[in-house]
Amino acid sequence: MNYSPTDFETMHRYLLGEMDAAEAAAYQGALAHDPALNAALQAERKVIALIQHDARSAMKKMLQAPTPPKAKRRPLMLWFAPLVAIAAVGLWWVLSPGTETLSQLADRFHAETPYHGLDRTSRGKLDWPPLIKGPQWQLPSQIEDTASYLNAHPEGRSLLAEKHLIEGEVLLGKDSAQAAIGHFRDAARISDDEDDALRYAQFYTALAQLKLGQQQAAVNTLKRLQTTEAENLDTHLKAQIAALLEELE
Amino acid sequence: MSTPSDEKLLADIRLGGTGCDRALRYLYETHLPMVIAYITRNNGTREDAEDKFQNAIVAFYEHVRDDLFQGRSSVKSYVYAIARKMWLTELRRRNLGEAYVAAEMNAAVDLPDTPEALLLHEEQNLTLDRLMNRLGEGCRTALRWRFWHAKPFKEVAQLLGLKNEQVAKNKQAKCLETLRKLIMSDPEVVKVLEDLP
Fold it and tell me: Which end of chain B lies in a sparser environment, N or C, as judged by fewer CB atoms within 10 Å?
């Protein structure tokens, strides 16, 4: 069998030991007779070694990081307990999650966590999206159809991602959480890694899951976001994720 | 916090994600004093101990991932033995022959058969870190899941919140292409990679 030096998927399966014995033997045979394939494999091995070095560094950083102290709620109560207690109990009764439904909790966190790409008023008035309405832009009905266009026009990627983010937010506000999740998913899928829309889409997905009563799914979404985007989250979003998780757990 | 059993720790590590991080941090924080005591008694500093034990935890993770840890000793003994072997290697590298002999005498646990850790000089590390920083965290995370945690695409898609494994494959291909271009544009990185074992 012929193996191409640019068939990286097969090459990775070989390097990661995912081939069965027969396939691995065939690949080794090809390597012995094909210098170009062998050279490509050696080069790719170095790329993977670099990724593995990066992963080890990331794990070491994770081990070094101090364990965050558990946030203390309403510490003033400790100091002014006798006088504040009655007022605090009343306040707690109004504000605590026990009196708040999951849907109300989602609304509160949505209001407190605006996406900073554009402020909400401006976004509402925006003629979305100008590029798509131009002569070269026709928004396909299925988002998958846009993939090839976006590859050719990367400048439209963030714009389209934000469009989906906003449509999702509007639907979330109207309690159409299931439809909102579809838009957030599309926003996350289209976004570039550097784009904050990617992370906000995931946070808003957790809020939509809360609106659907899916508390555990929301917790999983938030934890995944904390893990996979730990170094990309802006300070406010990071704090909001931690606060919401604390409310839910 | 109650003490988790070895079985629980290993299950969490194999699962990956935040549970894995929590288990590894537990091991690190719980057993670090023991490693500090050993290394500071044997010509090392607290900083040496922290660095070596971090490397030992990383190596332990790789052993669990690759099913090299057979469970014939406790997790505690195993990570301690890895740290100790790493420190002995370091003493040899520093040409501290007498200290090496003394450190071997002080050891209480048999060495596991571990593969050698990847050793790079600090300067080379910085060169590689600088390059990876240019790649972006999203790509770095995606590539780590596939090429270090050795997760199949289906799991990578789930861990990254992507729609399906094809999306994960596309993302990986795009990230790798960017990484290859970054490498080729930086002769210093090419040189460091050529020197890798």
Answer: N
